Amino acid sequence: MPVHLRLAATMIGIGIVLFARTATGAPKPVYLDASKPVASRINDALARMTVDEKVNELCESWGIPGVKRLGIPPFSKSEGVHGLADGTGATVFPAAIGLAATFDTNLESSIGDAEGQEFVDANLSQSWSPVLDVARDARWGRVEETFGEDPYLVTRMGVSWIEAFQSHNLIATPKHFAAHGGPLGGRDSNDVGYSERVMREVYLPSFRAAFEEAHAGAVMNAYSTWTDGLPNVESKSLMTDVLRQEWGFKGFVVSDCGAVENMLNKYSVVQTGPETAALALKAGVSCNCGDAYKKWLKQAYETHLVTMNDLDLAVANILYEQYRLGLIDKPLGPKNETNAPGFDSENHRALAAQAARESIVLLKNDNSLLPLSKSIKSIAVIGPNADVPQTGDYSGKLNPGQAVSDLDAIKSEVSPGTVVNYARGCDWLDPSTDGFAQAVAAAAQSDVVVMVLGDLTNKTTGENIDRANLDLTGVQEQLLEAVAKTGRPIVLVLVSGKPCTINWAASNIPAILESWYPGELGGTATADVLFGNYNPAGRLPITFPVNSNELPLTYDYAPSGRKYSYTDESFIPLFRFGYGLSYTKFAYSNLRVTPPRAIGGDATVSADVTNTGALAGDEVAQLYISHTYSSVVTPVMQLRGFSRIHLEPNQTKTVTFLLSPYSLSILNSAMDRVVETGPVKIMVGGSSPLAQIHDGQKQNVGFASSDQGVVGELNISQALAANFVSHITAPPIVSQHSRLQAIVNVTNKGNLTDTGEVKMYVDGRFVDTQHFELRPGQTKPLPFEINVPDKGTTSLAAVGKYSMAVDAMTVK
Length: 812
What we know:
Elements: H1 3-14, E1 19-21, E2 27-29, H2 38-48, H3 51-57, E3 59-60, E4 63-64, E5 75-79, H4 96-101, H5 105-121, E6 126-128, H6 151-166, E7 171-172, H7 196-203, H8 205-212, E8 218-221, H9 236-246, E9 252-255, H10 259-265, H11 273-283, E10 288-289, H12 292-302, H13 308-324, H14 346-359, E11 361-365, E12 378-382, H15 406-413, E13 419-423, H16 436-444, E14 448-454, H17 476-484, E15 490-495, H18 503-508, E16 511-514, H19 522-530, E17 586-594, E18 603-611, E19 617-627, E20 638-647, E21 652-659, H20 661-664, E22 666-667, E23 673-675, E24 678-685, H21 697-700, E25 709-716, E26 720-721, E27 724-729, E28 733-734, E29 739-748, E30 754-762, E31 765-774, E32 779-787, E33 792-799, E34 804-811
Parallel strand pairs: 3-10, 5-6, 6-7, 8-9, 12-13, 12-14, 14-15, 15-16, 28-34
Antiparallel strand pairs: 1-2, 4-5, 11-16, 17-18, 18-21, 19-20, 19-24, 22-23, 23-26, 24-25, 27-29, 29-32, 30-31, 30-33, 33-34
Helix pairs in contact: 1-2, 1-13, 2-13, 3-12, 3-13, 5-6, 5-14, 6-8, 10-11, 11-12, 14-19, 15-19
């Protein structure tokens, strides 16, 4: 139990009531006295709350309701995946998948800062974001809310946002904990039953960093199940052993909406409502979004399925965050989510435009069709997304004129003498081809055609909107083919929340841009790229397959025993992770790999990047590693660093990356984290390396030429691992039938961070297990509550995986 909760619970047990004095001499309750320790204030508040008030405080109702009678204010929140979502007029940034395509953590930090400012302006305290799910199946409708398919990219973007957002005295609530991004077949919340290895290698790293690095104040758990076979909302293994004991999380857990009820209604792991509420509360769900706690938690208390201490611990987790942020002492005013001062300021609009520009990925540009001339005589703009700004799911309500369409931006960008011919052509879902003739005519009358196709917000992508295939919906591809028959050069602009399968377009259309859901100024950004005001440099944060039959398909697949391709379908993606073109060219050279100078130190990787073209532009240098040989199967390659840099023509810059021991480590067959000796392939380039689908994949993975990247090797000569040593601290003489706390101090005397556990036994009888994560040289005290037996000598044994500590007490 965290220290602040142990203190609160202990004070409740002995009935301490503390008072201060106000300036007038009237007693001031401790829970309102800012001079008192937080644990004392929590204890005093809990002692004054009724059971009904405690239950109500645990029932999420578009925020935590607070206790009006005691002056404990509400804890207000909103969604904030890419802007404040539950009001009107807030800045709408590109969807998270587009932000991930920027590969720009500084930009993501600026967006977190801007969102934080707007949350403060709206008198809100908490954001249910960011989404730290790793999107491993592109059919999943919520891909647009994620930072893509790679754990490292998701982690770095997420940490950047959380740190900036919480700097405004706010709470971020990363979601969905855990493995929500890998549903079976891409069907939302369908469980796969991943192993602990997959969880720790793919789905947990982003959350671990959110709490250990960025110190997020809350977390939302997912609908899925944990490795113990229990729903996440019931899993003590996930919410206590991993979240609180290993990672030191001190905030509160909110259930995804309806997740607690799912134990009864869908998973069928309980038989009654009160049992449902009790299991979630005891597992660590402080706050229930849904009806379970409202309907059943008080009954669970009255029937002794939960205790007063269970209720107090859950409420204390919430109060701790409110006291930490000062919200008890300086309550916020009423929330104002409609055109609050500071919403969509000039600076924030400029940031939204910059984010949209950086997110655009140039997928194809045959014969340098792009950029277009602004003084072109005529241009056709065609497609259902041409005149309709698409901002994606979890977007706030827009004010009139707040968003700019591609059509309006193109009209504003071209010269006064340019004729713009617009035709919608078709709908997103309607099979009608009635608009084809007008579209073909518009194309035939124009020198170039810009076709804006793709998704429709909350109809073809979005929460619980999953599709079996990723083809352009309705008759959009037929429209594209019909227009192509005019022979006019075509630029295809995709507006989408996830990859589209555009195999025909990739073979037949000369220029293709992916703009994602680009936010309120997506049209402006797209026009900037189309006409050369901005040189695109976005990179794909998720693999684009040839078609949906290839899915799931990720760049960091594990080598297998046989072939990868189907008999009738290739394994090779259409566009690989990290891919993206520019209007200029880059070359890589002079790779330097410097081993650690000391045991447990960082290795350094540097490479030179030169702009060999005629235009200034950004390049996203990406570092990948591959364990050429390892004791367990590891991915063919893994992203371990990236750097977005700006280069003038003929300019050279050096990119430098640090490879920590942890980033080079693997989980061995015993699930211990280790760094093994031997060669590690080092690859630095402008996209993910090319994998050869045959024997010796790791040995052959790399780049085709220096304009794509350079390859080297790090030879690890020193194996690294944790080494946990335990020591028990307990009184030598105790009274029989008393209750005491024995402390097991665990020290990592090894040279690598790892997790572990200690099991406590008293006279050979199992008492409890404590989990931990320790850095090299770190010591952590693990408390165990022990009921002292009869008189005599009592033995204590703290047993770890590779160590044991023993002690003895005399009982009188």
